[in-house]
Automatic annotation (TrEMBL):
Name of the protein in its database record: GDP-fucose protein O-fucosyltransferase
Main subcellular location of this protein, as a coarse class: endoplasmic reticulum
Domain of life: Eukaryota
Function statement: Protein O-fucosyltransferase that specifically catalyzes O-fucosylation of serine or threonine residues in EMI domains of target proteins. Attaches fucose through an O-glycosidic linkage. O-fucosylation of EMI domain-containing proteins may be required for facilitating protein folding and secretion.
Organism: Sinocyclocheilus rhinocerous
Molecular function in Gene Ontology: alpha-(1->3)-fucosyltransferase activity; peptide-O-fucosyltransferase activity
Membrane topology of the entry: Single-pass type II membrane protein
Region (Disordered): 396-415
Domain called Fucosyltransferase N-terminal: residue spans: 59-163
Length: 478
């Protein structure tokens, strides 16, 4: 991601923190002087000027990026962002954590650790979660008690506040691209001995346990497997260089494009979690054999553009189906019909691409980090204005309703075996020892953190004690 592209740095704007901005800061709030040595630059808005926010920097709410390595500005800066409706200061400087003007703390889900959470959690501050990566990166967020700690979310789920569901689909044109290898040529390769199905995976031992499924499938149908997982074929030398073996490289595309079918199994299973595993074969003109999001059909171009593993009762049935398609050019071509624009009939997909404000590799649109930052900024300014109006005139203006996330914003299920019942798995199996445990330990951490927050604890390292006492209480049946 080219995060810095959105920055146009303007001359530093002067100092805020002069004079008493807030009264009533006490106790836990740090004095303003802690901030006076910070320098502020100003960024112009990617939406162009025009928001009506007249306030100088020293009156703006602050958004703190807790995970500084995702901070979508120059590292270490504090900057003014001018969003659609209002402006904020954004920083990754943790000195502002307990400051009254700090309205929201933004977290990157993959880096979020309960034992490093910003505590005590202040009542006037919201927490915002950005998590576009795999559910496997942090199962804490999949538990209801964990996700409810956040007020705003940007996740792959359509239910999140700022959904990133189609983040791996750059555009409609990406789908419409003509197949890298035409069907006649794919058939020639078949006759020359190429398998119908490609598997190329080097990240083994993942929560979706995909290799266990593929291992079973491979006993019923020929699969060429080039990655580290279940490898049965060497890559051609010219593709060994991994820098070309992943992206849009033409030689890579024409190599993988020879295959009629690509096994496309996500590393973690969750509704609406779809990655390049799904969209890239479609771009290349190959039919994905997909498992990942259970609701993937909601987003596909039409009802015959991918083969969904979960539609088949067994790997044997799936293999039979693939074999029939392999023998039937007309039926196979049916699966690539969406390459003709009029055959893309899924309005949800079309509208999703049309209505998202962020772009993928599109310089004319904001990236979704800056987009979410502005989403939070505008929401926080609305909330602050509503709180202020309420204080002025409580009879006329109600306090804004609390806003918090729930498990529909993430909510990924307990990892289950890729094939067969969990009881049939060897207790020493690596997957079994890793992922179900990780999922339940993440629940402990979520509960521990919720307890720290509820008890207004300042030291996040007390997490382990809280987890312990929750376990003890539970064992006593309370
Ligand atoms: C939470 O703890 C801080 C000190 O760490 C204290 O200043 C603050 O008043 C406490 N808040 C509540 C609601 O008890
Ligand atoms: C797809 O939808 C069409 C028309 O709605 C229907 O006739 C057809 O049976 C469907 N195909 C599949 C594979 O579900
Ligand atoms: C933010 O979420 C927390 C915890 O879930 C909740 O207690 C608080 O009221 C929410 N804040 C706002 C402003 O909605
Ligand atoms: C969960 O959040 C979604 C979207 O923010 C909301 O529509 C839904 O009503 C919430 N569900 C519950 C059970 O609160």
């Amino acid at each position: 991601m080219a995060l810095c592209l959105w920055l146009i740095v303007v001359a530093p704007v002067c100092c805020w923190g002069q004079g008493p901005v807030d009264t009533g800061d006490s106790g836990v709030f740090q004095p303003q002087s802690a901030l006076t040595d910070m320098e502020f630059a100003s960024v112009s808005t990617y939406r162009g000027p025009g928001n009506p926010d007249p306030r100088p920097n020293n009156k703006l709410p602050i958004l703190l990026w807790w995970s500084s390595n995702l901070f979508p500005h120059f590292p270490g800066d504090t900057e003014r962002v001018d969003c659609a409706h209002s402006s904020c200061l954004v920083t990754s400087n943790r000195k502002v954590q307990l400051y009254r003007r700090t309205a929201s703390i933004i977290f990157y889900g993959t880096d979020f650790r309960a034992y490093e959470a910003p505590l005590p959690r202040l009542a006037h501050q919201t927490w915002a979660l950005f998590h576009e990566e795999s559910p496997m990166n942090n199962y804490l967020l999949s538990h209801s008690v964990g996700i409810r700690l956040f007020n705003y979310t940007a996740t792959f789920r359509r239910e999140s506040d700022y959904p990133l569901t189609l983040q791996w689909l750059p555009s409609l044109d990406y789908l419409l691209k003509a197949p890298a290898v035409p069907l006649q040529e794919k058939n020639r390769w078949r006759r020359a001995g190429l398998a119908p199905v490609l598997y190329m995976q080097s990240h083994c031992d993942v929560p979706s346990d995909r290799d266990r499924y593929v291992q079973e499938l491979i006993t019923f149908i020929e699969i060429d497997s080039y990655g580290k997982c279940l490898n049965n074929k060497p890559l051609p030398d010219y593709l060994e260089d991994t820098s070309t073996a992943t992206g849009e490289d033409r030689r890579f595309m024409s190599f993988v494009g020879r295959y009629k079918f690509h096994l496309a199994l996500e590393n973690g299973l969750c509704p609406d979690y779809m990655t390049e595993k799904l969209w890239r074969p479609m771009h290349q003109g190959c039919v994905p054999i997909y498992r990942g999001s259970s609701s993937v059909a909601d987003w596909l171009p039409n009802n015959h553009s991918a083969i969904l593993i979960d539609d088949f009762p067994s790997p044997r049935d799936l293999a039979e189906f693939i074999k029939t398609l392999d023998q039937d050019d007309a039926e196979y071509s049916h699966y690539l019909e969406y390459k003709t624009p009029s055959k893309i009939t899924n309005l949800r997909l079309l509208e999703g691409l049309e209505s998202r404000e962020w772009g993928v590799n599109d310089m004319s649109k904001p990236n979704y980090l800056n987009g979410f930052e502005c989403f939070v900024c505008d929401r926080e300014n609305e909330r602050l204005a509503a709180v202020k109006a309420h204080r002025k005139n409580p009879q006329q203006n109600l306090l804004p309703q609390p806003k918090m996330a729930n498990s529909s914003h993430m909510g990924c299920p307990l990892p289950s075996p890729g094939y067969g019942p969990v009881e049939s798995i060897d207790p020493n199996d690596g997957w079994l020892q890793m992922w179900p445990q990780d999922y339940w330990q993440s629940l402990d951490q979520a509960e521990g953190l919720e307890s720290l927050v509820r008890h207004n604890v300042s030291d996040p390292s007390l997490l382990w004690q809280h987890i312990q006492s929750i376990a003890v209480r539970r064992a006593r049946g309370r």
